[in-house]
Amino acid sequence: MRQLNKMMVAAAAIFAFAASAGEVTITKELQAAMQDIAVHSKVVMVDGSGATPSTFHEDSDPATLQIVMLARPSDGAAQVSSDGEVIFLQKDTSEKEQQTLFTTAFYFKAKAREAARQPASAHSSP
User: Rounded mean pLDDT of the chain?
Assistant: First the structure.
């Protein structure tokens, strides 16, 4: 039951992300990858004392999603790392914004997974 609830929340967040990001094209395959990542990622809370988005060193484990609670507002805004591996939060980050950040992280991770599956020739231009 818990797995089903997690999947339903992930699907709802992904659909909301797709609807709100008009310029982003989410194929069925990408959506399926986002759902898979949402369900199977291990979420790990990390002490953000002294860390900022520019100084934090992620764990390099694609199976985890690190959540870093920033100690002070001056440490940076709530955001997702460019590879989707880390979400930085402030203590006052709203639930709605947190959902958006999680969905963005799943999107970035799914795009990276998609890019890794494509042959090298697809990445180079003629």
Answer: 81
